Amino acid sequence: MRTSNRKINISLKNQIIKSFAQVIADFKDTQEADKFLRDFLKDAELETFAKRLAVAYWLKKGRSYANIHTNLKVSSATIASTQSMLGNKGFQKALKRLEADEWANQWSEKIKKFIK
Question: Could you count the other beta carbons within 10 Å of the beta carbon of residue 68?
Fold first, then answer.
């Protein structure tokens, strides 16, 4: 993903990033957020962000670099740089949410089987 070489004022940068985050946080459900992201980002940009989160999730689950590289079609450098971000609080919070969703989905399936 290409970024501009022209830097804006740091206060303005922080303000527009917070505004962007607020827009995403205000969506009422994943369908609204998905629609926005697909409309707003180019396919390659969206895939890059989604893959980065998937790499982090799989690293946390203990998957090997080779497995991640083969399945997600990312470079070792991408995996390594993502691994270096795993300690960041925002990343940790996102991964906890993914794990909570995974846990909820697993239990939901178990309950559905039990009820039948």
Answer: 24
Q: Which residues contact 33 (CB under 8 A, 6 or more apart)?
A: 24, 27
pLDDT one digit per residue (tens) for the chain, 116 residues = 566 678 899 999 999 999 999 999 999 999 999 999 999 999 999 999 999 999 999 999 999 999 999 999 999 999 999 999 999 999 999 999 999 888 777 777 767 677 76
Q: Is 86 exposed, middle or buried (0-12, 13-18, 19+ CB in 10 A)?
A: middle
C-alpha to C-alpha distance for 69 and 82, rounded to whole angstroms: 12
Q: Token digits for 82?
A: 């993502």
